[in-house]
């Protein structure tokens, strides 16, 4: 077992309780130097796994706090090592004093992600689950957390394992057929070969396709609210925020800088950016605001293009619609409470979603939420289905799929089974990289460097 590490497992700051976690060969020996059970007959060093003791935390012979110590015995712990979790009262001073006492007693401070790294190195979890821990901690919404939770339960690893087994069986069969012609290996029908390649490729394509939508649920999306002056952009922002975040006046050009507000829209965390109305202006400040709003629009993962339903279509409206074509964008035809002069059909070619609402009356947020889910592709995403949760996993899945495509091409081009076999091996090593089976130290280093200390 590795040397003993210590860190705060709960968030820093004041709280009901704080948990200081020790893991490693001497976890219980270190705990025994700082924690003294009330029942003097109980010895910390002899504590069994999954048991708790009540007692005092002592620093330099002086009582610091009273609390509970929880023990786990290798390999039945998060890290797979001996673990002691010391729960003291949640104040930064108490917890830090306890950590200092553990260090004085022989532990060393844990590095970022070191607990999860040990869990990985000890075979408790695979790399996809390790990344899911990080994803779960950082999840932006309930559904994003559900997705990360699914990965943490190993659903992705199981799905990839299934693909690997199919490819290993295929590679084995090809090798036997090619290398041992004298043995009675049944011939590999090209149809069966191509069916397996196609099946695994389709499975990987599913994961790859849902990666973007999963990322939207986990991390949220930046949305730019754009449109001509006075169409109701700020009113819409205020409606979605639930309070008066932006200044609303009937004077065109009121919003000059970009106003930002995060809201939940259709279950997605959307960071709204209300921008200066797009129009030609001689005002230097307004012109700079318009420049920024164009940039916000280019950088946005979602564009909410607002039009005034009570006014006829303008030249600016047409330009805006043209810029939105082919992007994740929703047309919002506002002021539906007034007599309508705007013809939504005129912009229908540029938007897959057109929502008619009256932001000024506080109406339409729900309809907009549904449109957001459809445009971002999360409407049909099943949070219990396996999902890639990091860019690294996504890249590995893409490499695996590309190698399978090459295998298909080799087969179709009549290049022989040797060539197919090389491509299948490439696909297999991409999938192994995905779950971290032959992950190089550099990959492991990269994954765990994004963790916070204490995880
Ligand atoms: P922005 O310049 O695009 O941000 O527009 P504002 O949000 O400042 O709104 C411009 C004017 O339109 C204000 O006087 C609002 O009260 C009015 N307005 C906004 N939404 C509606 C609506 O749904 N119906 C009506 N009748 N007026 C609205």
From TrEMBL:
This is tRNA modification GTPase MnmE. K(+) binds at residues 230, 249, 251, 254. HAMAP family: GTPase_MnmE. One of its GO terms (cellular component) is cytosol. The keyword Hydrolase applies. GO terms for molecular function: GTP binding; GTPase activity; metal ion binding. Binds 1 potassium ion per subunit. Belongs to the TRAFAC class TrmE-Era-EngA-EngB-Septin-like GTPase superfamily. TrmE GTPase family. Its cofactor is K(+). It is found in: Cytoplasm. Its EC number is 3.6.-.-. The keyword Metal-binding applies. GTP binds at residues 230-235, 249-255, 274-277. Pfam families: MMR_HSR1, MnmE_helical, TrmE_N. Residues 220-377 form the TrmE-type G domain. (6S)-5-formyl-5,6,7,8-tetrahydrofolate binds at residues 21, 85, 124, 455. Mg(2+) binds at residues 234, 255. Exhibits a very high intrinsic GTPase hydrolysis rate. Involved in the addition of a carboxymethylaminomethyl (cmnm) group at the wobble position (U34) of certain tRNAs, forming tRNA-cmnm(5)s(2)U34. Keywords: Cytoplasm, GTP-binding, Hydrolase, Magnesium, Metal-binding, Nucleotide-binding, Potassium, tRNA processing. It comes from Candidatus Allofournierella merdipullorum. Homodimer. Heterotetramer of two MnmE and two MnmG subunits. GO terms for biological process: tRNA methylation; tRNA wobble uridine modification.
